[in-house]
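Notebook, p. 212. Picked up where the previous page left off. The plan for this session was modest: take the two constructs that came back from the sequencing core last week, fold each one, and keep the raw output in the notebook itself so nobody has to go hunting through shared drives later. Recording the first one now, exactly as returned: residue sequence, then the structure token string.
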Amino acid sequence: MKVSARPIEALFRPRSVAVVGASPRAGSAGNNIIQNLLDRRYSGAIYPVNPRYEEICGLMTYKTLADIGKPVDTVFIAVAAEYGLDIMKQAAAIGARAVLLNATGYADAGQAGAAKQAELLAIALEHDIAVCGPNNLGMINVLDGVPLWTAHMSDVKAGSVAIVSQSGSVALALGDDPAGLGLSHIITAGNEAVCGVADYVDYLADDERVRTILLFLETIRDPARLAAAAGRAKHAGKQLFAVKVGRSEQARAAVAAHSGALSGEDVVVDAYFRKHGIERCIDLDDMVQRAALSLKSPPRPGTSAVYLTLSGGQAAAIADCSSDVDLEVSGLPAHLAQSLTDHFHGYAPGNPMDVWGLGWDPARFGKILQQLVAAPEVNPIVLTLDIPASGAVDGPMGVDMARAAAEHAGDKQVIFVGNSAISGIHPDIAGICRENGFPVLLGIAGAMRAIATWSRSGNKKLPTESSAAAEAGRLSKDDLQKALRKQVRFVETAIVSNANEAAVTAEKVGYPVVLKGMAPNALHKTELGLVRVGLGDAGAVRRAYDDLERILKTHATTLGQGTVQLEPMIAGGIEVLVAGRRDPQFGPMVLFGAGGKLVELVADSVLRLGAVTAEEAIEMIGETRVATLLGGYRDGVAFDLDAVRNAIVAVSKLMVEAGPDVNAVEINPLIVMPKGQGAVAVDLVIE
């Protein structure tokens, strides 16, 4: 944290609040804050500050903070930015522990605003004051009745889901809680001049009443601190979901190697969230639906979901959408399918299960449901149908199903899925589900995503408690290259100084051979015409040497002093890429994917942050399309996965150990030979 742990408590649970800029004008920020505190029966003292009025909202009003003459925990500065620094100094003078500012005009308003924000930070650090904002709506501690909020506050159902948003409008939308999650806190971070998203997550990690944290992020200002806070929250048993929008030029390293093109910021953010146990969501709807399921215990191992529908088309849609998110829809156990045949005219039902039959029969459905509830292998039971707000289509049947579930489900998890998100939900069904704690998901695709995340949450490993942007090591470029060549097998090479020497060396090495033009700035040699492969005789070698020498001399000014390198032609393998790079925000990372000339065109790659274990390296390989080839596609020849795994682990660890002058390490291609024969690195770039 930029301030100590002590004052941030005053943001969340102040014993007294002063509102500078308090106003009797309805709808103004200075009025809404006071009114929200009164309406929610805030238990602490409230001190309106405005020299123009004697009283506001029935409360005695003070001309300045100093006039209060009593201890003030928290000051809400609800005035324009031009007055903010002066009020901040006054808050420091009276010993306030926390300040909220909602005004724009700080770092969001050019150089002059940035200077104001820098001075604001300096005051906060000097006096150990926690600051929320500026450029935000404030925050609401729903559980403790502390609404430090500039907008009119609607009724909020208290619960265990916290919202931390860098956008005020998004916080308003999520804070309306249309899914009925039940909220513990609503926090708008704004410019994060002092306290930021990481501080709020860190604080929430220690609150046992909070089970789920929702993040809306426009940028990740301090990856290391957020990673540490997320790790604490995960170890405290909380689930974290995030929507990350936008692109940041600052977060892209200026790396010319192929790894730079393959590791754009969004891919890096995916890897960052994955490493630190934060589930990345597509949009707000996706996040809310995943959050709804996160409040339920995930299915225990050995159980499978059963999907009940009212049409074959819905069953097909479930199959398609579950496949898209790698969610297995298992068949019914044989004994259970057989026991249900009486309800399906002698036929054993499948999964998904069309319970319409030859017409809707609520009694028959109740009996089917009871058998599924009694089956220990089944959990959850997912009811998927058209239940629009209009009450039409499957609405009446859905009401019957909801009532039956309420009567018979017991401890079994029941999830309602409306096939269409745009049609809303039948109000009677919504009421029954709310009373019985049945989550309602809208849209089959989104529902399957949420169910997939929830089903796997019980098997997730806790993230390691490590920094996202590890400090750079001390290995120089030369030391790194030496260390890498000890851990990864490289092709034997020879530097040749003329065409005749090249021909003689080729005879010793054995044909066919490869000639390469090497130069300090020749990173992509193939594109420059500096690689000649499959040279089968002395004449071909001489001609290739002369061509390469001419290219190197022609471009010596840009490429640097060049040499020609000869090496044997490696055949019979599969070309892959193993690379490391350093991101200015997120630190060292490792990439793996298809290699050779088509590396960027095919773009078959995966990425992880920091040093990876052997197990993680195998996971990386399995996530690529090239894994199919390595496993023996069609011809049945399996290739040496152990050698690939070892290369990934070596590059990832050495990238972490590398000094700050190393931006990228790239082996392309690494030629993977059949199983037991290892892999050979053919080309190495260190940037």
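Okay, moving on. Second construct, recorded in the same format:
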Amino acid sequence: MKKLTLILALAQAAVLYAAESVRYKDRLFDVEKTSDVVYATGVPQLNKLHQLSITFLAFDQNIYFYQNEYSTENVDLKMDIYTPKNDNQVKRAAVIVVHGGAMIGGAKDKNSKIVAYCDSLAARGFVAASIDYRLGVTVTGEFSLNGLLKGNTYNVAVDSADYARAVYRGVQDVNAAVRYMRANADKLGIDSNRIYLVGNSTGAILSFENIYANSKDDFFDYLEYDGVPTLGDLNDFGEQGVGAHANGGVFLWGGVHDPKIVANNRIPVLLVHGEEDSTVLFKTGRPLQNFSLTGTGIPKAFTNRLLINLETPTLYGSFVVDSTLSASNGEKANQETYFVEGQKHEFYDNSDYTDNVKTKVFDFLYKLATSNKVIYDFGAITITEDNKGIRHASVDGEYNGSGIVSVDREIPVNDVVLERTFNTSGYSTVVLPFSVKSGDVSGAKQFLDFVGVERNAKGRWVVQMKRVWCDEKTVIDDIEQMDISDEDKEIAKEGCRNVSGADIVLSAYKPYFLQMQGTELTFSGAVTFEPSAKKVETVVDDWILRGTLAPRRWTEDDAELGYAYGYSAINKDNVKIGDFIKAGKDAYIKALRCYLLYSVQIMDDVQGVRRAPVPVTVNDLPESMEVVIVDRVHDEEKTTVIGRIDTRTGEFTAVPSYRAFDLKGRSVGKGRSAAGMYLKKRIASPK
């Protein structure tokens, strides 16, 4: 009986431990290792060792320098796979660990830290793989061991183009490893959309390129020159028909060959770097300029008479990558950083930082493995999928990066969130990347369409809008409070009732004026994102209401400057907050908004040719324009004045009454100027 009680107690303790432990965060499993799994075959490898490498091998140093790139042999590329033992999950996250070694050394099973990472990851429930990739660079210059023994001095060199070719081969191999894992996801028991990289030093460089480089065109032309064999395309080797980009990465002291390829990529990454790194520079420079034979096992008497001039291409380190990602993606930048002042290369060898690096790496991978995976990323639009296969969309109305909304196919999603805080005191503008029925929209009072700019009976220019849909009760309540005649009130009410149904379709990529009940616009049910339109605009005669698919800034030499109008940020002269006014220099508008533009080049709908531009200059445009809503009642169009436009100022935003914000979103108070424009800044807590 006592024995049974003990067994039950142990079983209960095991259950409690399992309940408290968390996959991807805690060690839960024993680990199984499968060695030398082939992930690509028939890959050309340099095979004519330079005498320098033969010398290193004599001193038990595997450092690979080659005589030329003509002599190759086809080889198999291999990985060691670490799996959690007795684990019954079949959709596990996977991590490929890429060793360092300056492209001339290293191996999948020789670095104790790489092996330790793989073991720790598998014990936490990941499937981990350590890979070998092609090593070796060509050197020029004569060398012989006998001559060195006789006291001769030698100078050999590695050209930066040949070093870049070695890196490119390594990127081909990392890409092949990712594609192998993805193509064999079912066999390996992994989720093909949860494959991550951990790269160390050179491994981080190769991993950077996997995330950010799309094709050979992203690399410099000097990779291919007369007298060397072609390297082939970036994804020539290994499995085909699946994507080569990992779904996230951890880059330990790495860099990228060109920051331009980083730009708008928002794949989540963790950047770890010592700010005093002189091997792979934290900012910008040529890596390995401190390369030395000291410590390689070569006798000091020899190293003093052997100079290896290692020329490497310029590399842009973690600081530049972080800055580029932030500048290009604004608030949607998706990187984390751990930059340590005073530390050099591979500072996880410093005991003060070892645990910090490990903790940050494992915490980051845990977050990646347990969060919704990003399956589409289109500028201000992000579409994710959770562990149950349900798709969620986020439309970032505050996005201030440089990415363009470029949806390339129909994409159904189960729900959508518009991350934008609207004002409730005036009118806003909006472009929806999907069509939706009015009955599925909450938070709005009314949507309105642009119908032109005309002169009224008094000769004043007016901007005309008409209701597309309205919430009958709230809009009629507003009409009752307006300072207009009873007759005009009845006309406006009737116009509202005519467009208050629940089945009115609000179209994708159509510019709308919008009046809100509250600060949030929400949508119920599923929607389908539609392919981006080439032009998002409503054209009426010489005026255009133009929608933005990316943030837009008017510079001093912009052809639209002086012809573009948007909402005012302040009360000034005859201008009220929410009125349209002319955009000034450096004015700015975010994505999925609209602005009004006078166009001097209009397509004639009848003739199908461009007619002569109307001879109107900036100074000819009116000082102010009334803004009216056109209501159609009993086949007659009636108008209601809702504001004025003043073209003399340069502010360009919509905010609550008596409040203005500068370009950084900071409140500047009642009646003060907000230079430029800043559409729909969050109202609840302005910075």
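Notes on construct two before I forget. The longest helix spans residues 160-183.
Flagging for discussion at group meeting.
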